[in-house]
């Protein structure tokens, strides 16, 4: 823990939260990640050893309760929500723009999307299989198996019939997810092409709850326009 040597609540807060990756771990805890592997999936550039160290730090600081194999945000952590999403609001207005190449990780995007799919939008179905195909990148094919109780992300064909296929530019789907580009605009420009069962294709945009930061990004885009 870095110490600043100043008696001030801001410096005490930075001593707890200012280390690299710590606030991103808090962000993911606040949006529902509970298990070590879930946190690791959402932060693939963070080594598992450092993730374990940061979680231990947060537990000692009283921000996380480690119960069995779950990491649960305490009230102190929950009270960081307006600060974390205040950063989202500020960043959307003053620090956000076109995605940079080093920010585009298809696996991370699909992991985030997995947690933001509303199965009820597809009706009373045993499962709905979405096949996502990117036009460039190292890993280009993913499957989301959507069921009422769970949404699974698969890196190889799970063996079920595909109901909806999404062909997309990676940067475009990222911007749709983050709220910087409207789904309809991406489809009209063919940056995202969706095919398959007509009713399910129509239901797809209703099923995507989008990123928790999307409202702030949309607000910033509207203000700049």
Please give a structural write-up.
With 225 residues, this protein is an alpha+beta fold. It folds into 2 domains: 9-79, Arc Repressor Mutant, subunit A, CATH 1.10.10; 101-224, Nonspecific Lipid-transfer Protein, Chain A. 45% of the residues lie in helices and 16% in strands. It is built from 11 helices and 7 strands. The strands form 2 sheets. It has a 5-stranded mixed sheet with strand order 5-4-3-6-7. A hairpin with a 2-residue loop joins strand 1 (64-67) and strand 2. Helix 6 runs parallel beside helix 11. The protein is globular and about 60 Å long. The relative contact order is 0.11.
Fold blueprint:
Layout: H1 9-17, H2 22-30, H3 36-42, H4 48-60, E1 64-67, E2 70-73, H5 75-78, H6 81-94, H7 106-114, E3 128-134, E4 141-146, E5 151-154, E6 164-168, H8 170-178, H9 183-188, E7 192-196, H10 198-207, H11 214-224
Parallel strand pairs: 3-6
Antiparallel strand pairs: 1-2, 3-4, 4-5, 6-7
Helix pairs in contact: 6-11
A few lines on this structure:
This protein has helices spanning 9-17, 22-30, 36-42, 48-60, 75-78, 81-94, 106-114, 170-178, 183-188, 198-207, 214-224; strands at 64-67, 70-73, 128-134, 141-146, 151-154, 164-168, 192-196. The chain is α+β, with helices and mostly antiparallel strands and 225 residues long. It folds into two domains: 9-79, Arc Repressor Mutant, subunit A (Orthogonal Bundle); 101-224, SCP2 sterol-binding domain (Nonspecific Lipid-transfer Protein, Chain A), CATH 3.30.1050.
